[in-house]
Fold this protein.
Amino acid sequence: MTKGTKDLHEILGVKKGATDAEIKTAYRKLALKWHPDKHKGDNEAETKFKEINVAYEILSDKKKRQQYEAFGAAGPGGAGGFPGGGRGFEGFDFSGFSNGASGFADIFETFFGGGNVRSRSKKRGPMRGNDIEAAIKITFEEAVFGCQKDLEITKPDVCDHCNGKGAEPGTSIVTCKTCGGAGETREARNTILGQMTTSRTCDECSGEGRVPEKKCTKCHGTTRARVKERVKVKIPAGVDNGSTIRLSDKGEGGVKGGPSGDLYIDLIVTPSKKFIRSGSDIHSEIEIHLVQAVIGGEIEVDTIDGISKIKIPAGTEDGKVFKISGAGVPKVSGSGRGDHLAKIRIAIPKKLSKKEKELYRQLAQEAGIDIKKGGLFW
């Protein structure tokens, strides 16, 4: 073993010649202990987790294990050990691989199964545009009865100059000179096991193999350009503050003929000065005179539909609630409307005329109430 390197058996905490079951048990225990989800932001723990996966990937495969144990840490060509020491597998590029053991299979398939590393070129087909979000402010009454609003949005959409092709009109789409139409570029690198050839997606054509002969002067070859669009938004009756309306295909334009995304509109309802809403019901408070509460009568209640009249029975107490059926908010998810709930508040007079004082004194005498001087009725 080269000084400063790590032995794969030591990483998993198993002896040379350990059984498959022992290797598997050790791996599971360590993987659970050092999983990145338990050590978020800890780079050392992440490196440790990757080392564990590398060790398990080799030692759990009989062929790879035989080659490793036969050639040792130096590798079959004696090109140098697996770097390690206190810093783990320094020098390995783990980016682009998953944290699970299966993510490292491709790495060691390269080391022990062939001389080329091939990164698949992913040619992009039609892609759906992103969804976008906007907000509209409406009044309390507009939320109750519904309305229509005009909304102006700015978004990336299919370029109308090149019709989404990315090439200036009158020019062609040609073979990419960087990759020769392959959609990928190759790079030779010296590794611990010799020279490896890595294939990567071409940056120039993004794996397409073809590029515009001359990029569109409006979208600069991106196939999309920012546009302003006015959208008519129909707001149904009964929506509430925080409700969201989705307009299909009104989001960002798609790429390469893909569908557009959706537009999500959040509704902001300004509060009413007269009413309070609770679900599909509307609440209000009505102030009546003390005499009305005592002897009863008929009063007017202001509702969202206008003025309604309700009868107040004699002896009505403060806080009594009267219901006006069907005078509330339309139900968006069903039929019908909620109710209007009017709470009675009895107003106690603070000032009385001379005649009113006399009348109240007579009422007190009739009721056998002793009214002392200095009160409201004197």
Residues 73-121 have pLDDT under 50 and may be disordered. The domain at 8-114 is CATH 1.10.287.110 (Helix Hairpins). The radius of gyration is 39 Å.
